[in-house]
Amino acid sequence: MAWSRRWLGLALAGCCLPLAAQPLRLNVVADEYPPFLVRGDGGLSGPYADAFRLLMRKAGVEVVYQVVPAKRAFLDVSTRAGTCALAVNFDQGQSETVNFVGVVAPIALTAYKRGDDKRVIPGEAALRKHRLGAVDIAEVRDFLGSAGMPFMPAKNASSGFLMLAAGRFDVFISDMPPVRTPGQDARMPAPLFMLEQVERWVACNAGLPPAVQARIRTALKEGVFAEDALPVWSRYGMADYYRETRSRWLKSR
After folding, report:
1. Which of 37, 150, 193, 251 is deepest in the core (most CB within 10 A)?
2. Residue 190 forms beta bridges with which residues?
């Protein structure tokens, strides 16, 4: 009987914990963005998804992911309470209906040519004279579209570098550096110059309580490149990319 009363007391105590002591639930939508965001059994995986989940958990917020097309993300955030979108590009037009709460990560848009290409391409203006390929993401489309530069889209950086090596275009604009391997030949992509550094954000429903938005903003002081996130990047074999990006980004802020 004594044990029964004890367990009953513990159960009642657990039921009566203050709401603030229980993790908050946050619905997060995002599109696939390999290798940073990859569709998995749990909705999303990849260093962006796992690092964001880790940082939010430390802030007392439990993240539940859902994969949606990029074009639908802002609609979901604006119409669904308690919802945020992860790693979206900043859109001034959307800021009237959603809150851009914190920066997730920087993206350096860099132009590359083949290592055995001896042509001199001194700057952005010279790109107009060459066949362009580019990773097909919103930031690149906006940049090249505003400059009036047509390009051949590549699904991701790895496929784009293969197309560059095959001579499909002269210059490839990428959001990721090429993977350098032992025994690489002279055609290994060579960086020309950085065109622009942009940032990916977390955008949230305007009705999300200010206290929750403050937790997200505080947790993302260094985005998903916070020191606590290094084990996540290491698990994906991207520790070097983490260190290089973190160093460059923090110096520029």
Report:
1. 37
2. 113
